Amino acid sequence: MESKGLFLTEEKKGVVIIYPPSRLDASVSNELKEIIANYISRNIYKLIIDFKNTKLIDSSGLGAIVSKISVCRTHNGDVRLCNISDNIKEVLSITHLDKILKIYNSQTECLSSFTNNV
Description:
118 residues; alpha/beta
């Protein structure tokens, strides 16, 4: 696992997993955008954001997540989410992002979705 500021990252099976801090808000959203952009600049388009340690997200955090989805999808990748709390599920539902983003219960399930192209 590698530390990138307040974020941790690792690679499994050609997929990069990003672990945000406990709050994904305006104070760290630009950092997430930079991390995602850095991977894209290296032709890495399969990203998972694992929310196992994250309890709060605001609009800037949501914006950071969706900012590069189209680029990833254009290159047969995606930005997918897993291990989200009920609070974050509610925010995704209210904003209708649960209809756009692919959300999985576990990291294993999320990783498999890339392999199985689900």
